[in-house]
Task: inverse folding
């Protein structure tokens, strides 16, 4: 496994363990860097903490005393820890670099890097890119917010290997020198304002994916997104668009086919993934892998068979004529609106979750095909009000996912779509959106 070479810092604070903090701490320790770990919730008697201590780390649990910054020259924080955290705020005040573990990847990975961000569609696009490169029989690895810690993956990559990584705004905000060869910017929508506080801050965090790129690099961007277009004058990389509206440049589509520049790649009817959002994801992936030198044959091979990733408009099953889809990853209005636009059949929508203080009336134009709504979580009443304003008379409020699925099924008829697309984060009732999705799938299979 590779170690950091030429790393200029000698005493690093790792703030927050979880997967990313643990991987960063282990990398630093293996590289001979002095490490202090501070995690408020970590069990001091856990095997993980014992192992890190035995490896040479100093571990402080049970609080965030500012003394953890004493003699520190670099801070690596868990992406979810806000900048209002007293230790983070004091580190910034002391002019210490504060980064996420993604920043360490640039010290390790020597091959091509493709980085994907956006408000929606990141995981599907990242997975598609990985699958297409793999189908072209080229070495490739998958990393980032998709579940594989970037700096940990980078320790095992070769110089010939393309590393494809999914990056959230939380991760990107903690980068300083990170520079992907190919950056993919899918879309830009209002999200995570509880963390970033303003839309401008959120947009700027996303823009960091291309901040350090030069004219030797490529930015694949959504030409249909006006918010992204506003950042293009600041971009130094070669611009490669993808679009559902404009034709002839980059990756694009018409009524029948998808294209890259003047080349027809394949018929849309032969693509397994459904929905307009997935078509955008597909075009973004095509543009990225074309910049990486992947053959059209490999692209066709993947798009002819790839049925999606878990919790992203995932087909679950058909029961008594009803089609069940799990879109638990839809944590905002844009994602749910895309899901609703993917179906022409009547929909019973299951929605609700964490209340972030935003309304849901932005969904009203997309609710015309919804015959019933089952709402839950902190936002149940808000969503019920939106349904009423949209003219949906059949709305029921429930407490559990099992109840939600049962109520949805009772309200459905043959050929209806029963869709979990919450439009909210999951943290009011579940640890993750994955847990919420698994609960939905389990409830469907136990009907």
Result:
């Amino acid at each position: 496994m590779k170690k950091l070479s030429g790393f200029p810092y000698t005493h690093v604070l790792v703030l927050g363990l979880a997967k990313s903090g643990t991987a960063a701490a282990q990398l630093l320790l293996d590289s001979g860097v002095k490490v202090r770990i501070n995690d408020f919730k970590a069990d001091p008697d856990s095997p993980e903490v014992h192992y890190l201590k035995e490896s040479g780390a100093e571990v402080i649990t049970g609080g965030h005393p500012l003394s953890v910054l004493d003699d520190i020259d670099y801070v690596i924080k868990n992406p979810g820890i806000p900048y209002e955290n007293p230790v983070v705020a004091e580190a910034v005040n002391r002019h210490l670099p504060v980064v996420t573990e993604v920043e360490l990847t640039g010290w390790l990975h020597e091959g091509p890097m493709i980085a994907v961000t956006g408000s929606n569609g990141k995981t599907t696009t990242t997975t598609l890119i990985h699958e297409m490169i793999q189908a072209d029989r080229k070495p490739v690895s998958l990393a980032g917010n998709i579940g594989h810690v970037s700096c940990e993956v980078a320790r095992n990559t070769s110089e010939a290997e393309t590393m494809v990584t999914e990056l959230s705004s939380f991760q990107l905000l903690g980068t300083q020198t990170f520079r992907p060869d190919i950056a993919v910017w899918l879309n830009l929508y209002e999200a995570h304002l509880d963390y970033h506080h303003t839309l401008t801050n959120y947009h700027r965090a996303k823009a960091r994916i291309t901040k350090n790129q030069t004219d030797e690099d490529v930015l694949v961007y959504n030409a249909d997104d006006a918010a992204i277009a506003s950042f293009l004058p600041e971009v130094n990389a070669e611009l490669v668009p993808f679009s559902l509206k404009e034709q002839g440049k980059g990756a694009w589509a018409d009524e029948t086919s998808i294209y890259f520049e003047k080349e027809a790649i394949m018929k849309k009817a032969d693509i397994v993934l459904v929905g307009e959002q997935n078509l955008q994801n597909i075009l973004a992936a095509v543009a990225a892998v074309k910049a990486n030198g992947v053959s059209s044959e490999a692209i066709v091979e993947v798009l002819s068979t790839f049925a999606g990733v878990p919790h992203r408009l995932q087909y679950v099953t058909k029961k008594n004529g009803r089609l069940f889809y799990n879109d638990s990853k839809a944590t905002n209005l844009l994602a749910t609106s895309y899901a609703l636009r993917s179906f022409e059949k009547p929909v019973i929508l299951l929605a609700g979750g964490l209340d972030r203080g935003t309304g849901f009336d932005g969904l009203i134009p997309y609710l015309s095909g919804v015959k019933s709504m089952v709402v839950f979580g902190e936002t149940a009443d808000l969503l019920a009000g939106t349904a009423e304003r949209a003219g949906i008379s059949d709305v029921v409020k429930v407490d559990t996912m099992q109840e939600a699925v049962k109520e949805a099924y009772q309200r459905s008829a043959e050929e209806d779509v029963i869709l979990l697309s919450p439009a909210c984060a999951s943290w009011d009732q579940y640890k993750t959106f994955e847990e919420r999705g698994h609960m939905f799938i389990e409830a469907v299979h136990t009907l």
Summary: The chain has three domains: 11-99, 103-303, 314-445.
